[in-house]
Design brief:
This protein is an alpha+beta fold and 133 residues long. It has helices at residues 2-5, 30-33, 41-52, 69-75, 80-83, and strands spanning 23-24, 87-88, 93-102, 105-115, 122-131. It is globular and about 50 Å long.
């Protein structure tokens, strides 16, 4: 029924049934980071600011993304004991949302896809198309 498909406000962007149960510290939103034990709003903001801080060369557009979990815990050592098994810095599972509009008609496509890190082959895990949104 339509009632079963109605998303719960505020929770949809925080949960997924796909992936390996870890959170990618390089791309997770502030709100997703705050779902982790020991990460409050201030710590989540610190993590986001740390990864988005420009490299020492101010002309460079590169940011200081975490190279691996050890790099993350090197910058946030107090979180190691709580997050050791929950943090990653590479993703294989992605959520993609796209909306197209033409002549007063719009269509939204959402999907969750997994990209095999070795082969680069993408598999679509979930797909949904809606009109008029």
């Amino acid at each position: 029924t339509d009632e079963e498909d109605t998303p719960i406000a505020g929770i949809r962007g925080l949960l997924t049934t796909f992936g390996d149960g870890t959170v990618n510290a390089n791309v997770a939103s502030r709100n997703v980071l705050m779902t982790l034990p020991g990460v409050d709003d201030v710590m989540a903001e610190d993590i986001v600011q740390e990864r988005e801080r420009p490299m020492a060369d101010e002309a460079s557009k590169e940011t200081r993304l975490f190279t691996d979990p050890n790099d993350f815990f090197g910058r946030f050592p107090l979180l190691r004991s709580q997050l050791q098994s929950l943090i990653t810095t590479a993703s294989g599972t992605y959520r993609v949302t796209s909306t197209g509009k033409c002549g007063g008609v719009s269509k939204r496509v959402e999907c969750v896809a997994n990209v095999d890190r070795k082969s680069g082959i993408m598999s679509v895990l979930w797909w949904k198309e809606t009109e008029g949104q």
